[in-house]
């Protein structure tokens, strides 16, 4: 089955899918994106993702090119045409095509929308036995990290540096020494006193949809989540650490900057939350018989 993309109203072969060189996404990173996960053909947390996409567009004064119903239909149709039952649908919406000029193009310039879909492999169960490592790096991003902008240079550079140092993810640290979030994930710890902590929502982090669901799942399971900043120092001395995202789900962290977190093994709280999250998605845990 050959891949298909959706570009401005048309399903086109993936290898030919393109926007104009003067698309403002290409010229200025003037746009936003979303990523939803599909499990067994079901779109996970679809409305919460749209509840994030719309304000991101509003903040940038870009119009949503279609209503929710049409968007949901295309999401499913694209997954179907690509044979994706377990995978992702990626959406990018930009301010459209116009002669290069920083200021907004003429009113009525249509936004561009591009959507792609692909399968993703189930998470390697080994990750749950070994955990992953993170590398800290100064948070050099702008002050509107709550907008899911396609402008991701600091994230790209941080994640590349992490990769080159053998780490799975980069953790951004603000000027006060507090962890904001990962390059493409939210950050969590379980403190020495057993407090489950993740940074509170603000302009300093992206409000992760996985984070959002996990806060609810934890509350339902009588696990208290404290939403507050935590320092890199506190994380280094924590009992557990883990990260969350649409494609990483709940992944334990066992090393920060090369030093073990807690016992150096994935922790029980992360394992419990992962179980709750897989249950929520209606998926068996990877590696489960
Ligand atoms: N933080 C950043 C900077 C991200 O890019 C992402 C996902 O792309 C997340 C957090 C996690 O968000 P979600 O759980 O919605 O995937």
Strand content: 25-35%
What characterizes the major β-sheet? Answer: 9 strands, mixed
Mean pLDDT: 96
Bound molecules: pyridoxal-5'-phosphate
Number of strands: 15
N-to-C span: 29 Å
Number of helices: 8
Q: What is the radius of gyration?
A: 19 Å
Please characterize this protein's 3D structure.
There is one protein chain. With 289 residues, the chain is α+β, with helices and mostly antiparallel strands. 28% of the residues lie in helices and 27% in strands. It is built from eight helices and 15 strands. The strands form two sheets. Strands 7, 8, 9, 10, 11, 12, 13, 14 and 15 form a nine-stranded mixed β-sheet that branches. The chain has a six-stranded antiparallel β-sheet with strand order 2-1-6-5-3-4. Strand 7, helix 5 and strand 8 (169-173) form a beta-alpha-beta unit. The longest helix has 15 residues, at 46-60. The two termini are 29 Å apart. 37% of the residues are buried. Bound molecules: pyridoxal-5'-phosphate. Pyridoxal-5'-phosphate binds next to helix 6 and strand 13.
